[in-house]
Design goal:
alpha/beta, six-stranded mixed sheet, binds nicotinamide-adenine-dinucleotide, Aldehyde Dehydrogenase, Chain A, domain 2, Ald_DH_C, seven-stranded mixed sheet, 38% helix
């Protein structure tokens, strides 16, 4: 069995704690790897390496930082397949989806390559006689990133490239369920010439996370994961004087209006609900069928669901892979049986699915896709984030009923409307309480130069991640007021409040 350690100070670090967690291959159920779970001392070593690297890195020129980022982008481009293969091996998603994840992560590296443009600052001349004022932004220090299992490469790349570009040093704590991709990202960063200690990876669980939240030398924490943990992260880290952005869970709704192209809507619902086995924070998990669209839409989704090819992620024929763990698979199944007991109609029941034709996958964490109709608030399948390939359909008579339902959700990550009516789409985008809105786009994940973030219990903190918000988060402002007195000027004594003239 392979053992994965930490990446500290530009080199691998063996486990000191002697504590390990299992890393499965979800397609076979085997456990080919164990990951080191850091002790407080190991986290401290990673933070110390980042702290030591900080003075030189934060003072390094923009030219030097961007030279690294361009090189990093080049090496990542050449290693896309390797990163994607690790994602598929430990997460289970199909290789094409893993490649898509790497590409979306690389968008943030590309954004970071343009950091000089973002850090230009502002200058006002002659605000008062012979007085100029400039605003600059500087790094905050050591930043910690804590990331979820569902995007083991992309979400870390939402964070560290931009943080590093801004002059910070970084300690990443990836998900212990699929940690190898993040480790490879750090190794490649060293190959690209990143000085030792600028990017560190410490593997672990709650022990490691909680140490990062209280460590006096950590200045900022970026977190992406489930809502209960996001809430904990924000409370703990802010209580310890850190700036925090903590992105949480989601239950994303897709409203389908009566004038929508139902075939287009059904295709999009399928892709957004079942892609990556529903383990996406921007997955559509609820379709709100408005007016008389329900029966036809459910029929079209069911017909498409039956054709999906489910199998191991490294088989090019597979469109959907397994779930992350056996426990998660069983929990997802319990929502399907629970929904039936609570009065929903189970149109497609994917539980109990097995991959045909090979005994190799008999212990894999597979499930088929499920479609639940006539779901209502109050049912567990509606109220909880299932995070699996289970799509709920809720019926609504009118647009007003549908928007009230969506806005009643405790989450507000993404929301989409499908319609041909520009006026209705415009109303939706202004009225919906969500951070990311799609108009005939089911998974409106913003491009790298916009920012990603939800509302309500999908985000704890003020700033979204990456884009301009990311630059704000990873820098702090400084305003400099300068006077170069003319030799003829006499300041004189004046205890009054400075005024401009
Ligand atoms: P998770 O919250 O269980 O874990 C996220 C991270 O927190 C991991 O690194 C984990 O080690 C750590 N962690 C777990 N329990 C902890 C505890 N008790 N104390 C301290 N740290 C702890 O999330 P997950 O299951 O890995 O990922 C799936 C969740 O992430 C879903 O809820 C999904 O919606 C969410 N997610 C949100 C976004 C977003 O952008 N809003 C993106 C991706 C995933």
């Amino acid at each position: 069995m392979k053992t994965l350690g930490h990446w500290i100070g530009g080199k691998s670090a063996e486990s000191v704690s002697g504590s390990f967690g299992p890393v499965y291959n979800p397609a076979t159920g085997a456990q080919p790897t164990r990951v080191s779970l850091a002790s407080v001392e190991e986290v401290d070593a990673a933070v110390a390496a980042a702290k030591e690297a900080y003075p030189e890195w934060s003072r390094s020129s923009l030219a030097r930082r961007t030279a690294f980022l361009f090189k990093y982008r080049e090496l990542l481009d050449a290693r896309r397949d390797d990163v994607a293969a690790l994602i598929t091996a430990e997460h289970g998603k199909v290789h094409s989806d893993a490649l898509g994840e790497v590409a979306r992560g690389m968008e943030i590296v590309e954004l970071a390559c343009g950091i000089p443009e973002k850090l230009k600052g502002e200058l006002s001349t002659q605000v008062s006689t012979r007085v100029d004022v400039s605003s600059i932004r500087q790094a905050v220090g050591v930043v910690a990133g804590i990331t979820p299992f569902n995007f083991p490469a992309m979400v870390p790349m939402w964070m560290f490239p931009l943080a590093i570009a801004c002059g910070n040093t970084f300690v990443l704590k990836p998900s212990e369920k699929d940690p190898s991709a993040a480790y490879l990202l750090a190794e490649i960063a060293s190959e690209a010439g990143l000085p030792d200690g600028v990017l560190n990876v410490v593997n672990g669980d709650k022990v490691a996370v909680d140490r990062l939240l209280t460590h006096p030398d950590v200045a900022a924490v970026s977190f992406v994961g489930s809502t209960p943990i996001a809430r904990h992260i924000q409370a703990e880290a802010t209580a310890n004087g850190k700036r925090v952005q903590a992105l949480g869970g989601a239950k994303n709704h897709m409203m389908v209006l009566p004038d929508a192209d139902l075939d287009h809507a059904a295709d999009n619902a399928i892709n957004a609900a079942y892609g990556s086995a529903g383990e996406r924070c921007m997955a559509v998990s609820v379709v709100v069928a408005v007016g008389d669209t329900g029966d036809a839409l459910v029929g079209k989704i069911a017909e498409r669901a039956a054709r999906l090819r489910i199998g191991p992620g490294d088989d090019p024929a597979s469109e959907m892979g397994p779930l992350i763990t056996r426990e998660h698979r069983d929990k997802v199944a319990s929502y399907v049986s629970g929904a039936a007991a609570q009065g929903a109609e189970v149109v497609v029941d994917g539980t109990g699915f097995t991959v045909e034709g090979s005994s190799e996958y008999k212990d894999g964490f597979f499930t088929g896709v499920s479609l639940l109709d006539k779901v209502e608030p109050g049912m567990d399948a509606y109220d909880d984030e299932i995070f699996g390939p289970v799509l709920c359909v809720v019926r609504a008579e009118t647009y007003d009923e549908a928007i009230t339902l969506i806005n009643g959700s405790k989450w507000g990550n993404g929301a989409a409307v499908f319609t041909r009516d520009g006026g209705a789409a415009r109303r939706f985008q202004l009225e919906v309480e969500a951070g990311m809105v799609g108009v005939n786009v089911p998974i409106p994940v913003p491009v790298g130069y916009h920012s990603f973030g939800g509302w309500k219990q999908s985000l704890f903190g003020d700033l979204h991640i990456y884009g301009n918000d990311g630059v704000q988060f990873y820098t702090r402002g400084k305003v400099i007021t300068t006077r170069w007195p003319d030799p003829a000027d006499t300041a004189g004594i004046n205890l009054g409040f400075p005024s401009n003239n």
